[in-house]
Amino acid sequence: MRYVEEFRDPVAAKSVLKAIEEVVNEIGATPEKPVHIMEICGGHTHAIFRYGLDKLTPPGIEFIHGPGCPVCVLPMSRIDECVEIAERPEVIFTTFGDAMRVPGSKKSLLQAKADGADIRMVYSPLDALEIARRNPDREVVFFGLGFETTTPSTALSIQQADRENLSNFSVFCNHITVPPPIKVLLDDPHMVLDGFVGPGHVSMVIGTHPYDFIARDYGKPIVIAGFEPLDLLQSVLMVLKQIRDGRAEVENQYARIVPEHGNPVSLAAIADVYAPRPSFEWRGLGEIDSSGLRIRDRYKAFDTEAKFGVGYGAGDRTIQEPEGCECGAVMTGRIKPFECPQYGKGCTPEMPLGALMVSSEGACAAYFQYSAAEDVA
Question: What is the distance, to the nearest Å, from the Cα of residue 260 to the centroid of all Cα atoms in its chain?
């Protein structure tokens, strides 16, 4: 296949759906006893609902929506720290657009901007570097956020700032990694997971081997998937065939993009700039060992936490979710978005109560955008 239309071909999709139905019948999965497949990535969640794959696949398959949305898993305390930094008069705070409307315990970055803070939306950390060059008398902070997909660009920007001795630039590092929370979910006795659809963009950076433990230690199949309808359907079929055959392997459906050993340039930049944090707090999952990244001492001059005395080491900042908000339960696949008492009522895209309704990869936003009428009803 060479063109995007080919990955959305309805004739080909019907053929794959027929094969899926046959394997589901062979397994003996039913609506009462379904196969539970977790799509880890929020981008996959949106693709599933955008193309109606949840309704096209047999009722013997239940999709579980995983913690693959970095904006969504960020605890409220970190948003509060963003606001605290941004409201300093000497600071220009730069961030991706997704993070602007995520609620903190008192306000969002968008509300802080309305109150007068100099907060600017950027499309990459290179934009933040340019702002720092043009404003040498201001401290320019970039909100470093995301999984392994966005980590390399932030690392390369820190290296560039170091080469230029751009001392008024720093990164508030909230980069996190995918494998540790998967292990936490697999260790949870209340979670029923039969297989995984693995993230495509993250795997483009880290490759396939970081997921080996899923198959080796837990006996669960995982298939790294692309984002088009046929990508996802083929990946689900590959997971089902592994379950039918009693296999547990790491397979790569997205081989046209994802190399086995990842991107060496990106991995080298990450290794040079970052080290694992002892622990990092995830919304809905709590503290997870070695799941976050911190800036190495070599680049301490570009570490916002060190420069402004905020973040980890500055005191316990854990904050409870707003009453009735079940973001944590949705994020970990324990409930569906429409089972949250605030869904579509106290929490909508226009007035979000939780991060999952804000982010373009949030499960609640996906449900609301593509199936809101029937879910609220």
Answer: 21
Q: At what angle do helices 125-134 and 151-164 cross, to 10 degrees?
A: 20
Start-to-end C-alpha separation, the chain: 40
pLDDT digits (tens, 9 = 90+) for 206-256: 999 999 999 999 999 999 999 999 999 999 999 999 999 999 999 999 999
Could you tell me the residue ranges of all domains in the chain?
1-313, 327-369
Query: What is the second-level CATH architecture of the domain 1-313?
Result: 3-Layer(aba) Sandwich (3.40)
DSSP 178: S
**pTM, full prediction:** 0.90
Task: Estimate the share of the chain in helix, then strand, then coil, as percent rounded to the nearest 5.
Answer: 45, 20, 35
Any residues with CB less than 8 A from the CB of 367 and at least 6 apart, and which?
49, 336, 337, 338, 343, 375
The whole-number average pLDDT for the span 82-89 is 97
Describe the strand order of the beta sheet including 119-121 as a list of residue ranges: 119-121, 91-95, 139-146, 169-175
Residue 31 neighbours by CB distance under 10 Å: 10
Cβ contacts of 70 within 8 Å, gap of 6 or more = 145, 146, 147, 150, 174, 176
> pLDDT per residue over 5-14, tens digit each?
888 899 999 9
- From the list 317, 329, 319, the residue with the least C-alpha distance to 284 is 329
